[in-house]
Amino acid sequence: MIAQIAVYLVEAVFGFFVFMLLARFHFQWLRVPFRNQIGEFVLATTGWLVVPARRVVPGLAGLDLPTLLLAWLLQGLSLWIQAAILGAEPGALALAAVAAVDLLRYSLYILVFALIVQFILSWVNPYAPLAPVFDSAVRPFLRPIRRFVPPIANIDLSPAVLFILLQVLLIPVNVLRVGAATL
Q1: For the segment 41-70, what is each residue's pLDDT rounded down to a tens digit?
Q2: How far apart are CA 15 and CA 49, in angstroms?
Q3: Which residues contact 95 (CB under 8 A, 6 or more apart)?
Q4: 3-state secondary structure of 101
Q5: Interatomic CA distance for residues 183 and 180, integer angstroms
Q6: DSSP class of residue 36?
Q7: Neighbours of 138 (CB within 10 A)
Q8: How far apart are CA 115 and CA 137, in angstroms?
Q9: CB 67, CB 53: distance < 8 Å
């Protein structure tokens, strides 16, 4: 029971920072503005990690490589600590592979979350202060779908199509995670 509590706490604390680092990476990649409550929160919770890392690791082709690398390292450390608590000894390659797959999986979760919030805000309060943030996060993924799925009776079905595609994509990603653990 104590081991389960410890694993949960490690997963929760490290998971929070990994999600914040991934959000920061995706915000910069998708050019989502940081001048809002969510952007400021993400910057405040990750700045103490990212600023020193940027002195050592440069960006790559406009991508915030230090932030992504930190997220991967923190996820790998989290998996290693969880395995140590449970008495397992996974290999370094397996930890690195599972951590990389987890980043992909968490990125899809962030996109699903942003899509749901954007969909709800578009119906309830499209002029909410945070609506542009979520719209900026999902617009690049909805744009190609909107070319093939036109609005029907002025109702945009592209968020539903993207949601289904993301759920389908999560299935092989979860299978890949299990396969990566066996390395």
Answers
A1: 999 999 999 999 999 998 888 889 999 999
A2: 15
A3: 76, 79, 80, 83
A4: helix
A5: 6
A6: S
A7: 22
A8: 8
A9: yes
Identify the three-state secondary structure at position 61. coil
Q: Look up residue 55 and give its amino acid.
A: R
Helix, strand, coil share (%) of the chain residues, nearest 5: 80, 0, 20
pTM confidence score: 0.93
Task: For residue range 115-126, list pLDDT tens digits in order.
Answer: 999 999 988 988
The four Cα atoms 98, 101, 106, 111 give a dihedral, to 10 degrees, of 180
Mean pLDDT of 62-88: 95
Tokens of 33: 């503005």
Helix (H, G, I), strand (E, B) or coil at 155: strand
